[in-house]
Amino acid sequence: MPTQTKENYLKAIYLLEQNKLKVTITAIGKEMGVSKPTVNNMIKKLDQNGWINYEKYKPIQLTDQGKLTAALIVRKHRLTEMFLVNVMGFGWEEVHQIAEEMEHLKSEALFDRMDELLGYPTNDPHGSPIPDKKGEYNRKTYVKLSSIQPGKKAILKAVGDSSVLLLTMLNEKAITLGTIFEIHKIEEFDHSMIVDYEENKSVMLSHEVCKRLLVDEVR
């Protein structure tokens, strides 16, 4: 059974893979905020334990065992976030750090009960998919709001960044999952967008925000 530190590394590698990014020592170090030598030392341990395949100068890959272990950590994290929001009334900007601590609990019964009480959700409060007990999920492909052209409409399905700063800003602008945007204009200078949504008219959203909002185009 992996330690908490090893679980954090497995989750970081898993999320990089899910985002279709090249998994390297440098990428893992950036994701976790640690030095390359620190990552290199841990990667060797994970390889010895059979959780990853590692060859020098080649991308790091999770083994089937490592992928399942990581997916179940992510499952616990996202179920916790959903429980905190839907049952306990936390805001979506408040739950990440609590879930970071809860994901290391070993009680399967606790998370199975959460899942049951929530009605077996497939996505967390930020729109990210929740793996099932086999580590599987149906991954939906969304596009960035920044890619939608003027005159089109798009519905917010997920956020690509669950930072407190972004989610708090979205709260202040009354933007939630399910919000439908109508794009009026994209500024040529900085690619910011002028949009309507709900009762809000001609709202400017920066390019940095728009590329973090994942949407389906409304046809």
What does this structure look like?
- The chain has 219 residues and is α+β, with helices and mostly antiparallel strands.
- Among the domains are: 4-62, Arc Repressor Mutant, subunit A (Orthogonal Bundle); 143-218, SH3 type barrels, CATH 2.30.30.
- 41% of the residues lie in helices and 17% in strands.
- It contains eight helices and eight strands.
- It has helices at residues 4-18, 25-32, 36-48, 64-86, 96-102, 108-118, 164-172, 207-210, and strands at 52-53, 61-62, 143-144, 153-159, 180-186, 193-197, 200-205, 213-218.
- It has a six-stranded antiparallel sheet.
- Helix 1 (4-18) crosses helix 4 (64-86), helix 2 packs across helix 3 (36-48) and helix 4 packs across helix 6 (108-118).
- The radius of gyration is 19 Å and the shape is globular.
What's the arrangement of secondary structure elements?
Elements: H1 4-18, H2 25-32, H3 36-48, E1 52-53, E2 61-62, H4 64-86, H5 96-102, H6 108-118, E3 143-144, E4 153-159, H7 164-172, E5 180-186, E6 193-197, E7 200-205, H8 207-210, E8 213-218
Antiparallel strand pairs: 1-2, 3-8, 4-5, 4-8, 5-6, 6-7
Helix pairs in contact: 1-2, 1-4, 2-3, 4-5, 4-6
CATH homologous superfamily of the domain at 143-218 - what is it?
Ferrous iron transport protein A (FeoA)
* Gyration radius, rounded: 19 Å
Which word captures the global form? globular
Can you give the mean pLDDT? 95
Uncertain runs = none
The count of helical stretches stands at 8
Secondary-structure element series: HHHEEHHHEEHEEEHE
The fraction of residues in strands falls at 15-25%
**What is the terminal-to-terminal distance?**
48 Å
Helical residue percent?
Answer: 40-55%
CATH class of the domain at 143-218: Mainly Beta
Structural class: alpha+beta
CATH architecture of the domain at 143-218: Roll
Number of strands: 8
Oligomer: single chain
Q: Strand arrangement, largest sheet? A: 3-8-4-5-6-7
Briefly note the CATH topology name of the domain at 143-218: SH3 type barrels
Largest sheet: 6 strands, antiparallel
